[in-house]
Amino acid sequence: MTVLPTISFSKISAPKKGTAVILVAKGGKAPAIAAEIDPSGNIARAMDVSKFKGKSKSVVDIVAPAGASVDRILVVGVGEGDSVKEGDWSALGGTVRAKTASDKNLTVILDCDGVEIAPDAAAAFAQGMVLRAYDFDKYKTKKKDDEDGGDKPAAQKTTLMVDSPSDCKKVWASAEGVARGIMLARDLVNEPANILGPVEFAARAEALSALGVEIEILTEKEMKKLGMGALLGVAQGSVRPPRLVVMKWNGGKAKDQPVAFIGKGVVFDTGGISIKPAGGMEDMKGDMGGAAAVTGLMHALAARKAKANVIGIIGLVENMPDGNAQRPGDIVTSMSGQTIEVINTDAEGRLVLCDALWYCKETFKPKFMINLATLTGAILIALGQNRAGLFSNDDELAGQLYEAGEASGDRVWRMPMGPEYDKMIDSKFADMKNVGGRHAGSITAAQFLKRYVGDVPWSHLDIAGTAMASPASDTNQSWGSGYGVRLLDRLVADYYES
Ligand code: BES
Ligand code: MN
Ligand code: ZN
User: Fold this and answer.
1) Total Cβ atoms within 10 A of residue 320
2) How confident is the model at residue 435, as a pLDDT?
3) Phi, psi of 262 (to 5 degrees)
4) Average pLDDT for residues 254-278, to the nearest whole number?
5) What secondary structure does DSSP assign to 213-276, as a single string?
6) Disulfide: which of 71, 229, 273, 296 matches 332 by Cβ 3.0-4.6 Å?
7) H or E stretch including 490?
8) Distance CA 310, CA 248 (A)
9) Contact 370/462 with Cβ under 8 angstroms?
10) Helix, strand and coil in the chain, % to nearest 5
């Protein structure tokens, strides 16, 4: 099990044991406290000998000389002082964590010559440390390094020394809630589909009621009554019944119109009768990354008691081939009344989302709707794994998402939409078909969703490239990234709290 470091904040003073980390900006010098930790002057010498220049994330690792107050000293580069953003502080925290994972006592002196470290930055640093420590190893019966007795992550007491510990503590209380939300999303994405079916996922979401989130779970029968023929058409090929989970966080004023987040929760996507090739199909356990992000976000918002009214809706189904599965050519009727010709049963995410979006719009009349979905392989071709595709009918909302992305590190890139793409999903037999041909696959998927949002400001985030199979980074070493939680928490914090 992941052993997270326990974070505490205190005033700056020379640490008395364990490992000390000091920060140095590009071209800067070690902070005054360095001379107290090591009176012999070895720190400056080590920086000099190793040609340390303060480059971001560069490290000088020093065994403390006799007479020093600690055992080990790390000098860590911060980079160009004035250009260090919150995401960079997280990355730096992650870097420090990686170097010190097996140290039981760690003190990081967040004081840097020439760079102001505000409480927000200190909290981001701590968040990076915690996120880096996350490890999904619950199914490993032999833990890492058990045999060689080596570098096992220790239960680490981490002290962050800052100018104003009480301010930092307050900001960290929120940032820790967000970190927990991100790790919840990672857990859900990493969990295999035999363990996490729609019913089990719904139960995990239900656990958020402990934080004050109101939960409502719609069963198959209730969805049938509502006429959710598109979602149910996908679900009918699985022996495991679907669920639609509605999560409500009422942190705003009673009269505040809610904002809404909707997630694709395909717990496993075989493709259905339009079955996928075997190679790499195991990745499709992560096809609920959108639902995971929405669930993680609700956790984050509730944990930090966000002053906003927020709806989270996740459509949970399994896409399986089966005697009862839907066929290519089948025509289903969505809750909106619009009919859909299912050309390809592997384009199932949009079928789940269209009913969830319509239900959300009709039931809650939200200020905006943002949906997240591992929707198309094509978005990986277009944008790779560093940015999610952003599609929107509203320039203001799209702009806010872009800014929240740059600030938080969960970045997006806006993609085009328009009538010329929309007509690609017109159908000979029904109101629309669920695929638009080979070209512009991510865009035609977005056009499909747009037909279910009316005039509500709406954005769709295609996170097929960012939610899973993540490249290792400073703040994440796990397969699931938790992408979207930081982004949307930031969006709510910066633009939608009263
Ligand atoms: N879940 C997949 C998309 C996906 C692909 C997610 C790779 C993550 C990694 C989605 O349901 C799907 O199968 N989309 C098809 C759409 C096509 C049939 C129009 C795709 O992208 O090939
Ligand atoms: Mn699919
Ligand atoms: Zn899918």
Assistant:
1) 22
2) 98
3) -130, 135
4) 98
5) -EEEEE-HHHHHHHT-HHHHHHHTTSSSPPEEEEEEEE-S-TTSPPEEEEEEEEEEE--TTSPP
6) 229
7) helix 485-495
8) 6
9) no
10) 35, 20, 45
Compute the distance from residue 318 Cα to the ligand 1 centre, in Å.
Answer: 14
Among the residue ranges 149-153, 425-429, 439-443, the one predicted with the least confidence is 149-153
Helix axis angle for 198-206 and 165-190, nearest 10°, is: 160
pLDDT class of 493 with cuts at 50, 70, 90:
very high
Q: For residue 144, what pLDDT is reported? A: 64
pLDDT, tens digit, for every residue of 274-307?
Answer: 999 999 999 999 999 999 999 999 999 999 999 9
How many Å apart are CA 298 and CA 401, to the nearest integer? 17
Known catalytic membership, residue 276: yes
Atom 3 of ligand 1, residue of closest alpha carbon:
376
- Rounded alpha-carbon distances, angstroms, from residue 171 to 126, 166, 337: 11, 9, 47
Ligand 1 cavity residues, CB under 6 Å: 269, 287, 344, 346-349, 374-378, 435, 441, 464
E-strand stretches of 87-201: 105-109, 157-161
Distance from residue 74's CA to the centre of ligand 1 (Å): 45
pLDDT at 142: 83
Report the interhelical angle of 485-495 vs 289-303 (nearest 10°): 40
Dist. CA 446–CA 354, nearest whole Å:
11
Query: Contact, 133 vs 126, CB < 8 A?
Result: no
Q: What is the pLDDT of residues 172-197, one digit of tens each?
A: 999 999 999 999 999 999 999 999 99
Q: Confirm if 374 and 468 have CB atoms less than 8 A apart.
A: yes
Output the CA–CA distances (angstroms, integers) from residue 218 to 9, 177, 228, 357, in the order listed.
44, 27, 11, 15
